[in-house]
Each structure stands twice: as C-alpha cells, then as structure tokens.
Amino acid sequence: MRFTLLSCLIFAFFPLLLTNLYGEEPGEKIKRPSRESYREYDEVWGLQEGQMPKDINGQFIRITVAPATLPDPLLQYRLNIMPTEQESGNAAPLYKEALAAFNEVYHRRMENLYQSEEFKKLSPEADREAIRKLRFRTFPLYPHWPPDMYTEITAEEESQLYKSLDRVYKLMEKASRKRYYDWSETYEFKGLATLLPDIQDARTLARYLQGKADWEIRNGKYDDAVKSIRICLMLGMHIENSIPHPCLVTGLVGNAIIGVAQTQILNLSVQPDAPNLYPALTQIMLSSDDYLLNAMYGERLWLFQRPVPADIFETINLATADECKTVLDDLVTTFLVGCDAAMSSTISPENVYFETPSGRSVLTTAACLLAYPQAKERLLKQGMTKESIDSLSPYQVVVPYLLGEIRRAQDKMVVITSFPNGASYTAIPYDEQTEACEYSEPVKTLLAIFLPATQAAKSAFARQQQTLDRQKIVEAVRYCAAVRDGRLPASLDDIKELPVPKTDPMTGKPYGYRAEGNKVILDYQTPAPSRMEITIE
Which of 31, 98, 287, 427 is the most exposed, fewest CB within 10 Å of its CB? Predict the structure, then answer.
C-alpha cells in the first residue's frame, strides 16, 4: 500500500478520534491468560450510562494501586536509553529489518494454517466464524484480540508466539540505541506526493511491543516488560524526531506510539506487587513546544514539489510568466495528490483525465481564471494601476496572490502554535472551523486541503504530557501511602516528599485533586471534563 503525507495524517488522527468516540461496551470482562494476581484497570470514554460520574463526559479511569517506596538503585526500572548505551548510526534500517522478520513469522504461520487439514475442511462462506478464530489462534497478537476470543487461546500458545518473534525484539532493541532515525525522504522535492511507508511500519512494530509488554506484565515478568516499554518509547521518539525534517505526520504518529507505551506503564503500575516507577518517569523527555513549532514549519514543505523562493513569487515582476505557471502547475498537482490520498476509493473518468498532462493543464488554466478577479482586486487596492495589471500575464497576477494568501494563513498557523493551551487571545484570533471561510475560492479550497488542524495537534501533544503528569502523581501517591502509614496527601501541595506536576497542560489551570478515605480523585481536561480515581489498597 502506498502512503502519502496526507493519508498518513489521516491515519495518525484516526486512532485519536476512535479513542474519544468509542468506549468498551458494558458487560463482563473475559480474563486473558495471566497469573492469578494480575489486575486490570478500567477506562471508558464518552457518556456511558452507569459507568461515568455525572459531571464527567471525557475520559474516566479507575485504578487500584498498592503503596510502594522508591527502588534502589533509583533507576532499576529504566524507561529511557542512557547516553552511555547509545551507538552512532541510523535506526531506520534496523526497524525495516525487524518488520521483515515480523512479517516472515506472520506469513509462515498463516501459510501453515492454510495448508492444515483443519483449515481445508472449512468453507469460506459457511464457516467464517471458525476461520476467524483459527486465524486468531495462529497469530494471537494482543492489540488485535477480539473480546469474544480471549478464551480461545492458551498461555502456552501465546508464549510460543512471542518466542517465535524473538529476532524482531533483538533487532528493535538494537535500533532503540541508535542516535537518530533518517527515513531518507526529501519531501521538499515531492511535496504531498512523498511516500511514507515507514510510518505505517512503525505502527505495526509498536503494536507488537504493546502486546509483548502486556503479556510480560500479565505473567509477572516486570523487568522484561520495562525493557519492551522502553524500546516502544524510543521507537516513538525516533519517529517524532526523524530526519530530514520533522513534520506533523511524523510527530503525531510518534506521539501515538509513545501513547501506546504509556498505556503499558499504567498497566504495570496497577499490579499488586508493581515497583514504584516515579524515578523512571522523571527521565522521560517528551517533545517540547519547540518541536511542534518546528514540525509546523515542516508543513510548508508539503506545498511544492521543488524548493521555491517564496519572496520572488510573491512580488509582482520578479518572476516570469513561465516561472509563475510552473508554480501554479505544482499547486494543482499537489491538490490532485491530496484529493487522491483523501478519496483513493473514488475513481471516475474525470479523475483519470485530470491526472494526465492535458487534464492538469485544464485545471491550471481554470484555477488561474477563478483566482484572477480576486487577485486583480487585491493589486488595485494596493495602488497598482489597471494598465499595469493588464500588461502582466494572468499567471504573474494570480500566483503572487495565491502564495500571499497561503503564506498569510501559514504565518498565522505557526504563530498560534507558539501560544499556550487553554486560552484565546484577541490580537490574533483563530478558529479552525471558520478559518478557511475568510478566503474566497479557490484559496479556500487550497487551504482546506493544505492547512493542518493546529489545535488538534497541540491537544495531542498536551495529552501526552498530561498522561505523563498523571503517572507521576500516581507513583507519588503510592510513595506517600507507603511512608505515611496509608495516610494520603490532602492536596498536591501536601505532597512534600517528591515534586509533582500541578498544572494541566491542556488548560494551563491547576489539576483538580482531592482525597476521600483511601481514594484520590484527579480531575483534568481531554479537552472534555475527565477524571482518574486512584484507590489505595
């Protein structure tokens, strides 16, 4: 499958939408193969009758944890790669080799299934459910487990799966120690047509590590689980900070992979005999606001298929008619690529025609004609005479206008990115829902395709920091319960033993915190009102 920047951006946001809109259906949980003391935590999203407090309609997490002092040495359970462990070199080839090893195991197991007598006796039409269960038992990777199949696999079958994937793990462990990740795509020359197969590959590898860590936690192999989580965190950080230039797609996919690792950190924390992970959590360095701003600048590289000195094309008379026409051709080509990525299942004779050179020429001419009246009006308002405008090629009139409008919108986008979350500012108002409506066609259409969802991206990175904050608070509460004979801190300010985050990065306001008996209630925004209930056993 071919993945472009736009299609990968859709894939990056899709899990975030599912997480917010979809929660587990009420009903009895089916225990996965695990040791007897294994404990799960409850998490639901949205309004689910009987499962959410009345004032909460976002995320609701309920966990039970045990008191625990800090480990000795403090970083016995490390979640980061030490500088002394790092090696020079590029992690990308190792990740690719790991994916190939993963696919080899998968296809070999499936081929053995298809050649088995048990499978050959089944009818593709009449025995779909039986085939589905056989396929699952052949490759029971945890993140893909349907709830109705938890009892269809034994602990030994699951153990054998992860043993068969040992080479994948070793390659990823080696990749996690490399200093950088270079996916070798020069998208400043290809724009939106840049292919990003490594992005989807990274998600596959993250799902493998998620399943492996979950299996290790369920079976009390905490040292191994911490290593799997550490490798998953490094995979996400490699993707986020990939070379040649970070962009929103790599940032969001890396962000999602780090989120996968964070779910397993919480999964480990709720176990009755779990170590205290507070020291390890202090060593996780998430992307800063500077990273997001840098990624937003990377978004400018999507628009053209070759480096463009924008100041030349935004100034009348500095670029020739042929140069301006080439830029407009690039805009039309990028627009077609974007439409194709967003609606790849829609194929019509018109779409095929517009992908031919003659079809693109028609679209370029049409774009020029549509934008010319607005471009001419803008120049007249700037004091240029009608005669001077009429002496120029239409492309010399239209291209500076289009690029100027696009630059105006992009400038606003990157400046807003630097603003804190949770507040609005009157000097530079920004509303993503209506932003493109300021512009006339065809600028509005171009902006709808090319401008990223700035606030959604900022929220995704803020939620990642918020998750880390919650995990630090959980571990600090566990420590306080251990050294205070079970007495819980009355407030975040009452936690004197360890520093804890007090400000919600989503809003810039303090976290809500209160203690009720043996329970701590932590309120935050996702951006909907959300809550974590922490019960100390």
Answer: 427
For tokens 């290593």, name the residue: 227
Q: Is residue 303 part of a domain?
A: no
Residue numbers of the domain that contains 357: 308-452
Can you give the pTM of this predicted structure? 0.83
User: In this structure, are 339 and 273 located in the same domain?
Assistant: no
Q: pLDDT per residue over 10-29, tens digit each?
A: 444 444 434 443 333 434 44
| Domain's final residue, options 452, 469, 489 | 452
Domain edge (last residue) among 428, 452, 476 = 452
Same domain, 333 and 243: no
Look at 33 and 228; give whichever has higher pLDDT: 228
Same domain? For 513 and 409 the reply is: no
Please name the residue that has the structure tokens 């990003």.
Answer: 196
Tokens (6 digits) for 310: 């924008």
| Section 33-51 average pLDDT | 79
* CB contact at 8 A, 472 and 460: no
**270: burial class by Cβ within 10 Å (0-12, 13-18, 19+)?**
buried
Longest dimension (CA), the chain: 87
3-class DSSP state of 289: helix
Sheet holding 512-516, edge to edge: 42-45, 59-65, 529-536, 519-525, 512-516
262 neighbors 474 (Cβ within 8 angstroms): no
Q: How many domains does the chain have?
A: 2
| Residue 392 to residues 203, 204, 375, 385, 476, Cα–Cα distance (Å) | 50, 53, 12, 12, 69
User: Who has greater pLDDT, 226 or 313?
Assistant: 226
Distance between start and end Cα atoms, the chain: 49
Cite the DSSP H helix spans in 219-302: 222-240, 248-269, 278-281, 289-298
- Angle at which helix 197-218 crosses helix 248-269, to 10 degrees, equals 0
On whether residue 203 sits in a domain, the answer given is: yes
